[in-house]
């Protein structure tokens, strides 16, 4: 149990710090980052509840830290679903690549809806679709490719 708690804390810190330190600002719409990649890769072996909490809290905290608090609640909700689903998918042996693609689409649509709620114009929504789409596509591709190499490591150290 201690091992899982320590691993969860480390994963939280890795997601948070990577999101905060390695970002590309995109004006009022926030920043591009690789948090999706980390959530999809690092949270498969956690319980769905832990995965939801780690994914949502680490990324929402990053939004607040970086001055985009208007996104924090939406990020919290979207990433909670992402973390919960990726951990559940692992436990039920669902096809990893398909789950990643579906979650990617969900994240894109979630942030498009968020930007519509926050800014209320189609120009912003289309820009959000383009930028968030790019971020998610890159993140999902990296996660799918890297997952094959990390499975052995995760199985060895997180069981």
Describe this structure as you would to a colleague:
By secondary structure, the chain is mainly α. It has a single domain (about 1-20, about 35-155), classed as Arp2/3 complex 21 kDa subunit ARPC3, CATH 1.10.1760. The protein is about 80% helix and about 5% strand. It has six helices and two strands. A two-stranded antiparallel sheet has the order 1-2. A hairpin with a 5-residue loop joins β1 and β2. α1 (about 1-20) runs parallel beside α3 (about 50-65) and α3 (about 50-65) packs antiparallel against α4 (about 70-90). The chain is globular, with a radius of gyration of 15 Å.
Helix content: over 70%
Structural class: mainly alpha
Mean pLDDT: 92
Order of helices and strands: HEEHHHHH
Under CATH, the topology can be stated as: Arp2/3 complex 21 kDa subunit ARPC3
Second rung of CATH, namely the architecture: Orthogonal Bundle
Rg value = 15 Å
Short note summarizing the structure:
The chain has helices at residues 2-21, 35-42, 48-65, 72-91, 96-119, 122-157, and strands at 24-25, 31-32. It has 159 residues and is mainly α. A two-stranded antiparallel ribbon has the order 1-2.
């Amino acid at each position: 149990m201690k091992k899982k708690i320590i691993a969860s804390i480390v994963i939280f810190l890795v997601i948070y710090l990577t999101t905060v330190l390695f970002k590309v600002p995109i004006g009022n719409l926030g920043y591009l980052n690789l948090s999706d990649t980390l959530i999809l890769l690092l949270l498969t072996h956690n319980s769905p509840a832990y995965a939801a909490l780690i994914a949502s809290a680490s990324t929402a905290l990053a939004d607040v830290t970086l001055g985009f608090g208007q996104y924090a609640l939406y990020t919290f909700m979207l990433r909670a679903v992402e973390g919960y689903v990726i951990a559940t998918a692992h436990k039920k042996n669902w096809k990893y690549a398909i789950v990643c693609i579906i979650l990617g689409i969900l994240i894109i649509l979630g942030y498009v809806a968020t930007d519509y709620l926050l800014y209320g114009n189609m120009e912003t929504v289309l820009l959000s679709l383009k930028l968030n789409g790019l971020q998610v596509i890159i993140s999902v591709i990296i996660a799918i490719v890297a997952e094959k190499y990390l499975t052995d490591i995760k199985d060895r150290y997180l069981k």
